[in-house]
Write a structure and sequence with these properties.
There is one protein chain. The protein has one domain: TIM Barrel (Alpha-Beta Barrel), CATH 3.20.20.70. Strand 3, helix 3 and strand 4 form a beta-alpha-beta unit. By secondary structure, it is of the alpha/beta class. It has an 8-stranded parallel barrel with strand order 1-2-3-4-5-6-7-8. It is built from 6 helices and 8 strands; from the N terminus they run βαβαβαββαβαβαβ. The radius of gyration is 16 Å and the shape is globular. Helix 1 runs parallel beside helix 2.
Length: about 190
């Protein structure tokens, strides 16, 4: 895992083809250092592989770690810096799913998720939703006080996720977060 991580964890959003993806990724990385999670829900594996190759080139140029939100099998085919799993995928594993020299990131929603991610050796945790979000209307926002209590004993860097915008950075840092994770505010339409 990199010695120092950015306070910005960007999750890629929608794009209209390779040129649009490249323009958005280059623009956001040129603004400031970020950890990049390539998330392309519903994309065919062959197309995802192409996006991984393009993202690797760009992220290397900007010295940004590239994490893939995909399966361990597809991740193993790449030279990406790390793997990101959702909380729903955690139960599929009894040990760390990737090599120790790769970054292992996990999205968590509960204390049980945080404990399981810790047992599996996660290097980075995303805890959400801090604020209510349209993408997860069934989950109430944790709020900053609950977020802080949930992460206070964790050794891994934790990013606040869920309704985050760049202007939430100060509150996130005050609550003990490494920073914020977001699509909105980093990856414009």
């Amino acid at each position: 895992m990199p010695r120092t991580l950015s306070s910005h964890y960007m999750i890629t959003g929608k794009f209209a083809g390779h040129a649009d993806f490249q323009e958005k990724l280059e623009r956001t990385l040129s603004a400031e250092s970020k950890v990049v999670q390539l998330r392309c829900k519903g994309m065919a594996d062959s197309e995802y592989r192409e996006m991984v190759r393009l993202a690797q080139i760009i992220c290397r140029r900007f010295k940004a770690p590239l994490l893939l939100a995909t399966t361990t099998a597809l991740f193993a085919e790449t030279e990406a810096d790390g793997l990101h799993l959702s909380s729903h995928q955690l139960g599929d594993f009894s040990e760390r799913p990737i090599a120790a020299d790769k970054i292992f990131s996990v999205s968590c929603h509960t204390e049980v998720d945080l404990e399981l991610a810790d047992r599996l050796g996660a290097d980075i945790l995303l805890l959400s939703p801090v604020k209510p979000t349209a993408s997860h209307p069934d989950l109430a926002g944790l709020g900053w006080d609950r977020f802080q209590k949930m992460i206070e004993k964790l050794e891994q860097p934790v990013y606040a996720l869920g309704g985050m915008r760049p202007e939430d950075m100060q509150a996130a840092r005050a609550a003990g977060a490494q920073g914020i994770a977001a699509t909105a505010g980093y990856w414009s339409p």
